[in-house]
Amino acid sequence: MNPTVSVIIPTYNVEAYIKETIQSVLNQTYQNFEIIIVDDCSTDGTVNVIKQFQDTRINLFLNEKNSGPSYSRNKAINLAKGEWIAILDSDDWWDRARLEKMIQMGQDYNVNIVCDDMYFILDGETRPLKTKFSESNWDINNPTLISIQQLIDYDFGILQPIFQKEFIIQNNLKYRENLGYSEDFILMIECMLNNAEVIVLTEPLYYYRLRKGSL
User: Fold this and answer.
1) What is the pLDDT of residue 174?
2) Span 105-127, mean pLDDT?
3) How far apart are CA 86 and CA 90, in angstroms?
4) Is the pLDDT of residue 81 over 70?
5) What angle do CA 156, 104, 144 make, to 5 degrees?
6) How many CB atoms lie within 10 A of CB 122?
7) What pLDDT does 212 receive?
8) Which backbone phi and psi does 18 adopt, to 5 degrees?
9) Is residue 144 within 8 Å of 200, Cβ to Cβ?
């Protein structure tokens, strides 16, 4: 039986963070997932930390050469068996109920993409600095379908959604591997140009770490 969700984590030199990232997935209240980690030729102990986990749902793949996060994400999407693709950066982490709430929302509203608010937290701190919605002055009280104009106006390209894999594959969409940044934003725009329905939850369930040296 295939998992419902494929959690995609591209890694590169995140020895200090990857354990917390993976553990936040393993601690989810929703457990029907696989984790696909693609390491982009880390030169620190990242791979050794990943190999310490014994959970059979964790699948580790190693790039032959350093190729960037977009390449690693595309590789993971091609390997994914889940109905949904969940993107998680290797120095961030999730609220325990994130997958459960987002999968339920995607099913209830029959949409292609589900987003949530995110906490920004400074590296080394324990309390969030702010949320993305508060920073953007986006004030909603209920799950809301957004337009491509709102995506751009409120700078929501930084959000880390869950995607229906079938929608991504059918529309031949992928992260642009020639970009060093903003590849998330471009993919979201291309999804919406292909008529993706995107719903946004009101609550922050994603913890986004702000740190020096991170792409």
Assistant:
1) 95
2) 95
3) 13
4) yes
5) 40
6) 12
7) 67
8) -65, -30
9) yes
Half-sphere exposure of 28 (CA within 13 A, CB side): 23
d(CA 39, CA 49): 12
Q: Are 18 and 97 in contact (CB under 8 A)?
A: no
DSSP H helices in the chain:
18-26, 46-51, 69-79, 98-109, 132-136, 148-153, 165-170, 183-193
Q: Which helix (H) or strand (E) holds 137?
A: none
pTM: 0.95
Q: DSSP secondary structure string, 138-196?
A: ---SS-EE--HHHHHHTTGGG---EEEHHHHHHTT----TT-SS-HHHHHHHHHHHTT-
Residue 128 corresponds to which tokens in the numbers above?
A: 């969030």
Look at residue 6 in the predicted model and tell me its pLDDT. Answer: 98
Mean pLDDT of 18-29: 98
Q: Which two tokens stand for residue 29?
A: 């209240």
Overall size of the chain counted in residues: 215
Kindly state the helix (H) or strand (E) to which residue 96 belongs, with its residue range.
Answer: none
- Given the DSSP bridges, would you call strands 162-164 and 58-62 parallel, antiparallel or unpaired? unpaired
Q: Is there a contact between 60 and 26 (Cβ–Cβ < 8 Å)? A: no
* List of residues 6+ apart from 104 with CB closer than 8 A: none
**Taking 80 as the threshold, does the pLDDT of residue 86 lie above it?**
yes
For the stretch 130-174, pLDDT in tens is 999 999 998 888 999 999 999 999 999 899 999 999 999 999 999
The answer to whether the beta carbons of residues 213 and 140 sit under 8 Å apart is no
